[in-house]
Amino acid sequence: MERLPEILQMLFPELPESQPWEVVMQRIKEHPQCSLYFVVPPSGLAPETDWTWGSESSNETNLRENRIPLDLLGSGEAETVDKLFIR
Length: 87
Prior knowledge:
Helices cover about 45% and strands about 5% of the residues. The chain is mainly alpha-helical.
């Protein structure tokens, strides 16, 4: 999360301050360079698979991956970082 302000600045150098976090998240997901800074869990996992960032099954990926998991944007921490970023 410490990279989020830097990433927001690169993606949206003139991001309006008054946008709700939900709108910012949607703009991030739609941005052409989203995949450069954010990563999604592997697709095609069986429904019973409990894959999480940091699990043994994803540990090798975590060591090589420096992008932010896209699902973390839904956390309160990401919204707080955004609020601090725009001030």
